Amino acid sequence: VAEAARFYKVQPSEVIVFHDEIDLAPGRFRMKTGGGAAGQNGVRSLISQLGADFRRARMGVGHPGEPQLVHAHVLSDFHKADRTWLEPMLNAVADALPFALAGDDDRYQAEVMRLAPAPKFSPRQAAQNAARGE
Fold first, then answer.
1. Where on the phi/psi map is residue 127: left (φ > 0), alpha (ψ -120 to 50), or beta?
2. CB under 8 Å to 48, separation ≥6 — which residues?
3. Residue 35 lies in a domain
4. pLDDT in tens, 74-106
5. Closest listed residue to residue 29, CA positions, set 78, 101, 102, 94
6. I need a surface site. Which of 54, 72, 95, 132 has the fewest CB within 10 A?
7. Among 1, 96, 94, 8, which Cα is nearest to 54's?
8. Is residue 38 part of a domain?
9. How many domains, in total, are found in the chain?
10. Which residues sit opposite 55 in a β-bridge?
11. How far apart are CA 105 and CA 97, in angstroms?
12. Domain limits at 35?
């Protein structure tokens, strides 16, 4: 990413990185500029190469409930049940992209969530599902 940004003379503030975020409930979407890596290794790598001032499209995947389950959670495939929120969110992220390209991150975030509202999320239910391996 950093090499491409330098080659095309793109400033970090013009780069948008889309990534999963366990600190957001499944289906939630947030835009953010700058900040730390929050344990996200890909973001940490980008910060080391670009600096921290790039834009982040944070797509919530939820927390598995137990710290020892995080690694497997973020590296595994989505479950079939996740398709009910995942596909609409990915479509909304693409459909609303003109707002992000125009630099209006607040409007982009709002439009994504309007097009694909996040499902109601119960942390207790998620923990029970994780314990059952669902």
1. alpha
2. none
3. yes
4. 899 999 999 999 999 999 999 999 999 999 999
5. 94
6. 132
7. 1
8. yes
9. 1
10. 16, 33
11. 10
12. 2-117
Position 63 in a domain: yes
**Is residue 133 domain-resident?**
no
What single-letter amino acid sits at 28?
R
* Structure-token pair, residue 55: 């834009």
pLDDT, tens digit, 9 for 90 and up, residues 16-50 = 999 999 999 999 999 999 999 988 889 999 999 99
Q: What's the CATH number where 91 sits?
A: 3.40.50.1470
User: Which amino acid is residue 88, in one-letter code?
Assistant: P
- Amino acid at the residue 15: V
CA pair distance 35, 130, nearest whole angstrom? 30
- The amino acid sitting at 128 is Q
Q: Are 85 and 61 in contact (CB under 8 A)?
A: no
First to last CA, the chain: 35
- Any idea which residue has 């330098």 for tokens? 6
